[in-house]
Amino acid sequence: MYREIRQCRRVRETTVVLILVIIASALICPASATQPAYSAFPWGDEPLAGDAKAPVPVEVWQIPPLVVVLVLASIILPACLTPLEILTCCGGALTLNFRRIRKKSALDNVCRKEIHRYIIANPGAGFSEIERGVPVNRGTLEYHLAVLHRERLVVAIYRNNRAFYFENAGRFSDEEMDGMARMKNERAQSICRFLSSSPDVSQKEIARWMGVTVSTISWHLQRLLKAQLVTSGREGRMVRYRLTPFAAEILERITLSRGEEEHMVTGGRERITIKQANTVDAPGG
Predict the structure, then answer these.
(1) Helix H or strand E encompassing 199
(2) Across 171-277, where does the E strand assignment appear?
(3) 79 CB-contact burial (10 Å; exposed 0-12 / middle 13-18 / buried 19+)
(4) Is residue 145 within 8 Å of residue 125, measured between CB atoms?
(5) Which of 68, 93, 178, 273 has the highest count of CB atoms within 10 angstroms of its CB?
């Protein structure tokens, strides 16, 4: 199958080259015409009688506008023909040198496929997290993420000037993606972990456990409540907080992904392997 695809690509590229060569030849080669010799003879046997009449001068405003336009076009267009030929040839050369990546072939690159798999396994992963999980340099990761986003294989949501990536397959609603992105915050995640092990606690208890101020905990809890990751209930004068089942599921996924990441690091996965695979489809090639 891959051999047939390559064959089709070669035929397509050869056809494009031939068409460009024909167009360039037609534009560059000057047109030429031979003028046959001719002679003028009088209509009859008698010579022409009368004086020759000189041409009558005509003022510019007496010339029809169409004639003026045609004369100007015949003067200007030949001067524009050479730049047009140069631009056409350069455009053909650029088309042959750069290859457009389509959605069907976007995952043919090994490095890009690895990044896509990591995003599927770790929904809501940020740039730094992907960089730690998939050992590639920063510039290469930016390029491949841009290709995946352009071909709509992944979707990115932005929170606090940070991008969080998800598989573009309709697995999560907007609310779920928002919750996962907020859970990526380390302090918010620590609050959720504490609520998972100790439900129905107050802001003061959370602040005491984390060693931060109550106002800091209140700020994070308000955002977790808005994202429906935490619920609150009043008990007398005390407001107590509990983790939602959805937040518990997200927390479990994050824990599993961290375990897989540590396993990948301890397994001695080498950075050079992905770099070699990346040479198949580099940004400039």
Answers:
(1) none
(2) 230-235, 238-243
(3) exposed
(4) no
(5) 178
